[in-house]
Write a structure and sequence with these properties.
The protein has 236 residues and is α/β, with parallel strands linked by helices. Helix content is 35%, strand content 19%. It folds into two domains: 164 residues, 3-Layer(aba) Sandwich (Rossmann fold), CATH 3.40.50.300; 65 residues, no CATH class. The strands form three sheets. Strands 4-5-6-1-7-8 form a six-stranded mixed sheet, with helices on both faces. A three-stranded antiparallel sheet has the order 9-11-10. The two termini are 22 Å apart.
Length: 236
Amino acid sequence: TVGYGEVHALLGLNGSGKTSLALTLMGAGGYKPARGRILFDGRDITALSLTERARLGLTLAWQEPARFEGLVAADYLALGMREPSRARIEEAMAAVALSPVVYLGRTVNHALSGGERKRIELAAVYAMRPRLAILDEPDSGIDVMSLQDIVTLLRRMADEGTSVLLITHRDEMVEMADTASLMCGGAIVNTGAPDEVRGYFAQRCRPHGDLLGYQPWDEKAGGTYQRVVAEGVCDE
């Protein structure tokens, strides 16, 4: 559950199912829940299309930002806004520490670095004023100095009423959240305060070693419960 105006961090090793969950929540890529329902503001949206969910105020920022040949940043930001305005577009660019003068006229393509495209995509999300922003590893490929800019933006979004689901594999990012969950082997294995989830992650999740072979839902084996993921293991 992600509360109103709250940043909820979803932590997990690569391959644990975080992106699959994000796509399921957004209704993208043909992903659907195997069981259960998706509730948004008390409404069952499980059967709604991606477009219908977007109209309700859900948005998803991809881990790898898209490239658009021939589309400048100003127009890219305007696409997702209900009432585009130059002032709001410039505000959004400034919020991600990019100069509107320098970047709004630049094409969103390979000429920009991955970090620049990531910032522009986050600016586009901020400009939309979504009710729920699902951010798939916004910290991926970002240098340490830039991480603080992202943290500042996410707190700003939350303060302005946007609920944020921050998906990350970096446990240091979790501390800026209000609440957090740990995902392992396609399941949420711990939810609580950020420091509690970080502690659980540090103690029980680790890269693959000699524990390969067990499946995510295996019964007790060798005296421990183990969930296997693409790049690591969580012990229960």
